[in-house]
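cache lookup: miss for this entity combination. No prior model stored, computing from scratch. Input as submitted by user K.M.:
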Amino acid sequence: DGGITQSPKYLFRKEGQNVTLSCEQNLNHDAMYWYRQDPGQGLRLIYYSQIVNDFQKGDIAEGYSVSREKKESFPLTVTSAQKNPTAFYLCASSIEGGGGVDTQYFGPGTRLTVL
Amino acid sequence: GQNIDQPTEMTATEGAIVQINCTYQTSGFNGLFWYQQHAGEAPTFLSYNVLDGLEEKGRFSSFLSRSKGYSYLLLKELQMKDSASYLCAVRDSNYQLIWGAGTKLIIKP
Protein backbone atom coordinates (compact mmCIF):
# COMPACT_ATOMS: atom_id res chain seq x y z
CA ASP A 1 0.00 0.00 0.00
CA GLY A 2 1.35 3.39 -0.97
CA GLY A 3 1.13 6.20 1.49
CA ILE A 4 2.78 8.56 3.92
CA THR A 5 3.75 7.55 7.42
CA GLN A 6 4.61 9.79 10.32
CA SER A 7 5.98 8.72 13.65
CA PRO A 8 5.40 8.93 16.46
CA LYS A 9 1.69 9.81 16.66
CA TYR A 10 2.13 11.50 20.04
CA LEU A 11 5.34 13.06 21.31
CA PHE A 12 6.16 14.74 24.58
CA ARG A 13 9.19 16.91 25.02
CA LYS A 14 10.70 18.91 27.81
CA GLU A 15 11.51 22.56 27.21
CA GLY A 16 15.02 23.03 25.89
CA GLN A 17 15.17 19.71 24.06
CA ASN A 18 15.36 19.18 20.33
CA VAL A 19 13.08 16.55 18.83
CA THR A 20 12.88 14.99 15.36
CA LEU A 21 9.62 14.03 13.67
CA SER A 22 9.76 11.34 11.03
CA CYS A 23 8.01 11.43 7.63
CA GLU A 24 8.34 8.68 5.02
CA GLN A 25 6.48 8.22 1.73
CA ASN A 26 6.47 5.41 -0.81
CA LEU A 27 4.40 7.22 -3.43
CA ASN A 28 7.48 8.13 -5.48
CA HIS A 29 6.60 11.80 -5.05
CA ASP A 30 9.26 14.43 -5.65
CA ALA A 31 7.80 17.14 -3.42
CA MET A 32 7.37 16.95 0.35
CA TYR A 33 6.05 19.48 2.87
CA TRP A 34 5.82 20.12 6.58
CA TYR A 35 2.87 22.03 8.04
CA ARG A 36 1.88 23.05 11.49
CA GLN A 37 -1.79 23.15 12.55
CA ASP A 38 -2.99 25.13 15.56
CA PRO A 39 -6.58 25.45 16.77
CA GLY A 40 -8.55 28.12 14.90
CA GLN A 41 -5.84 28.64 12.29
CA GLY A 42 -5.16 27.37 8.83
CA LEU A 43 -2.26 25.08 8.10
CA ARG A 44 1.01 26.98 8.01
CA LEU A 45 3.95 25.88 5.88
CA ILE A 46 7.20 25.28 7.74
CA TYR A 47 9.48 23.85 5.03
CA TYR A 48 9.12 22.21 1.66
CA SER A 49 11.34 20.27 -0.70
CA GLN A 50 10.85 19.70 -4.41
CA ILE A 51 13.88 17.49 -4.94
CA VAL A 52 16.44 15.50 -3.01
CA ASN A 53 19.14 17.59 -1.28
CA ASP A 54 17.16 20.80 -1.73
CA PHE A 55 14.56 22.50 0.47
CA GLN A 56 13.08 25.95 1.04
CA LYS A 57 11.75 27.78 4.05
CA GLY A 58 8.05 28.30 4.36
CA ASP A 59 6.23 31.02 6.28
CA ILE A 60 7.25 29.89 9.78
CA ALA A 61 10.65 28.18 9.45
CA GLU A 62 12.27 29.82 12.50
CA GLY A 63 13.13 27.24 15.15
CA TYR A 64 12.83 24.30 12.74
CA SER A 65 15.25 22.42 10.50
CA VAL A 66 14.86 19.72 7.85
CA SER A 67 16.91 17.44 5.63
CA ARG A 68 16.13 15.65 2.37
CA GLU A 69 18.85 13.06 1.86
CA LYS A 70 16.50 10.50 0.31
CA LYS A 71 13.45 10.94 -1.91
CA GLU A 72 11.33 8.95 0.52
CA SER A 73 12.23 10.77 3.71
CA PHE A 74 11.83 14.34 4.99
CA PRO A 75 12.44 14.53 8.76
CA LEU A 76 11.65 17.70 10.70
CA THR A 77 13.62 18.77 13.77
CA VAL A 78 11.92 21.06 16.24
CA THR A 79 14.71 22.88 18.04
CA SER A 80 14.74 24.56 21.42
CA ALA A 81 14.67 27.89 19.57
CA GLN A 82 11.04 27.33 18.57
CA LYS A 83 9.04 29.42 21.04
CA ASN A 84 5.68 27.68 20.85
CA PRO A 85 6.30 24.15 19.60
CA THR A 86 3.15 22.50 20.96
CA ALA A 87 1.04 21.78 17.86
CA PHE A 88 -0.18 19.15 15.42
CA TYR A 89 2.46 18.58 12.72
CA LEU A 90 1.45 17.31 9.31
CA CYS A 91 3.71 16.02 6.57
CA ALA A 92 2.49 15.94 2.97
CA SER A 93 3.79 14.96 -0.44
CA SER A 94 2.83 15.65 -4.04
CA ILE A 95 4.05 14.46 -7.41
CA GLU A 96 6.08 17.50 -8.36
CA GLY A 97 5.20 20.58 -6.30
CA GLY A 98 4.01 22.48 -9.33
CA GLY A 99 0.73 23.45 -10.89
CA GLY A 100 -2.22 21.56 -12.27
CA VAL A 101 -3.90 19.03 -10.08
CA ASP A 102 -0.72 18.47 -8.10
CA THR A 103 -2.61 17.30 -5.06
CA GLN A 104 -0.94 17.16 -1.68
CA TYR A 105 -1.48 13.93 0.27
CA PHE A 106 -1.06 13.98 4.01
CA GLY A 107 0.36 11.67 6.62
CA PRO A 108 -1.56 10.94 9.85
CA GLY A 109 0.24 13.68 11.78
CA THR A 110 2.29 13.93 14.98
CA ARG A 111 0.92 15.75 17.99
CA LEU A 112 3.81 17.36 19.85
CA THR A 113 3.37 18.56 23.41
CA VAL A 114 6.07 20.49 25.24
CA LEU A 115 5.94 19.98 28.98
CA GLY B 1 -1.66 40.12 2.66
CA GLN B 2 -3.17 36.82 1.67
CA ASN B 3 -6.44 35.76 3.23
CA ILE B 4 -8.87 32.85 3.07
CA ASP B 5 -12.21 33.22 4.87
CA GLN B 6 -14.57 30.42 5.83
CA PRO B 7 -17.31 30.22 8.45
CA THR B 8 -15.99 28.76 11.69
CA GLU B 9 -18.83 26.32 12.29
CA MET B 10 -22.04 25.14 10.62
CA THR B 11 -24.78 22.76 11.69
CA ALA B 12 -26.99 20.69 9.39
CA THR B 13 -29.40 17.78 9.58
CA GLU B 14 -28.76 14.26 8.36
CA GLY B 15 -30.13 13.84 4.84
CA ALA B 16 -30.11 17.57 4.10
CA ILE B 17 -27.89 19.75 1.90
CA VAL B 18 -25.27 22.18 3.15
CA GLN B 19 -23.14 24.80 1.38
CA ILE B 20 -19.79 25.85 2.84
CA ASN B 21 -18.48 29.13 1.45
CA CYS B 22 -14.88 30.23 0.97
CA THR B 23 -13.70 33.67 -0.10
CA TYR B 24 -10.09 34.43 -0.88
CA GLN B 25 -7.64 37.23 -1.55
CA THR B 26 -4.29 35.91 -2.67
CA SER B 27 -1.30 36.98 -4.68
CA GLY B 28 -2.13 35.09 -7.84
CA PHE B 29 -4.36 32.10 -8.33
CA ASN B 30 -3.38 28.65 -9.53
CA GLY B 31 -6.27 26.57 -8.33
CA LEU B 32 -8.47 26.01 -5.29
CA PHE B 33 -8.65 22.83 -3.22
CA TRP B 34 -11.14 21.47 -0.72
CA TYR B 35 -10.07 18.96 1.92
CA GLN B 36 -11.99 17.08 4.60
CA GLN B 37 -10.42 16.60 8.02
CA HIS B 38 -11.87 14.47 10.80
CA ALA B 39 -10.81 15.44 14.30
CA GLY B 40 -7.25 14.39 15.06
CA GLU B 41 -6.70 12.98 11.58
CA ALA B 42 -5.01 14.03 8.35
CA PRO B 43 -6.78 16.17 5.74
CA THR B 44 -8.01 14.18 2.75
CA PHE B 45 -8.45 15.63 -0.72
CA LEU B 46 -12.01 16.27 -1.92
CA SER B 47 -11.90 18.51 -4.98
CA TYR B 48 -9.91 20.87 -7.18
CA ASN B 49 -11.17 23.86 -9.20
CA VAL B 50 -9.11 26.02 -11.49
CA LEU B 51 -11.74 27.20 -14.00
CA ASP B 52 -15.04 28.89 -13.19
CA GLY B 53 -17.97 26.62 -12.72
CA LEU B 54 -19.15 23.55 -10.89
CA GLU B 55 -17.26 20.29 -10.43
CA GLU B 56 -19.41 17.38 -9.28
CA LYS B 57 -18.16 14.26 -7.54
CA GLY B 58 -20.90 12.06 -6.16
CA ARG B 59 -22.52 13.72 -3.16
CA PHE B 60 -19.95 16.51 -3.17
CA SER B 61 -19.73 19.45 -5.60
CA SER B 62 -17.42 22.44 -5.65
CA PHE B 63 -17.98 25.77 -7.37
CA LEU B 64 -15.52 28.50 -8.30
CA SER B 65 -15.87 32.13 -9.39
CA ARG B 66 -12.41 33.60 -9.95
CA SER B 67 -13.74 37.11 -10.63
CA LYS B 68 -15.45 37.13 -7.23
CA GLY B 69 -12.69 35.30 -5.35
CA TYR B 70 -15.32 32.84 -4.18
CA SER B 71 -15.87 29.12 -3.93
CA TYR B 72 -18.32 26.85 -2.21
CA LEU B 73 -18.47 23.18 -1.33
CA LEU B 74 -21.92 21.61 -1.58
CA LEU B 75 -22.63 18.44 0.33
CA LYS B 76 -25.85 16.56 -0.49
CA GLU B 77 -27.67 13.76 1.34
CA LEU B 78 -25.69 14.43 4.48
CA GLN B 79 -24.55 11.46 6.53
CA MET B 80 -23.31 11.39 10.11
CA LYS B 81 -19.83 10.50 8.85
CA ASP B 82 -19.70 13.88 7.07
CA SER B 83 -19.22 15.52 10.47
CA ALA B 84 -15.72 16.95 10.04
CA SER B 85 -13.84 20.13 9.28
CA TYR B 86 -13.70 21.28 5.67
CA LEU B 87 -10.58 23.16 4.60
CA CYS B 88 -10.36 25.55 1.67
CA ALA B 89 -6.90 26.19 0.20
CA VAL B 90 -5.74 28.37 -2.69
CA ARG B 91 -2.53 27.84 -4.64
CA ASP B 92 -0.89 31.23 -5.06
CA SER B 93 1.50 32.65 -7.67
CA ASN B 94 4.43 30.85 -5.96
CA TYR B 95 2.55 27.55 -6.20
CA GLN B 96 2.19 27.40 -2.43
CA LEU B 97 -1.10 26.52 -0.75
CA ILE B 98 -2.68 29.20 1.42
CA TRP B 99 -5.11 27.60 3.86
CA GLY B 100 -8.30 28.77 5.47
CA ALA B 101 -8.89 27.95 9.14
CA GLY B 102 -11.54 25.41 8.20
CA THR B 103 -15.28 25.06 8.76
CA LYS B 104 -16.41 22.59 11.40
CA LEU B 105 -19.57 20.88 10.16
CA ILE B 106 -21.83 19.32 12.76
CA ILE B 107 -24.48 16.86 11.52
CA LYS B 108 -27.51 16.26 13.72
CA PRO B 109 -29.84 13.26 13.38
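stored under new cache key. DSSP finds no helices and eleven strands in chain A.
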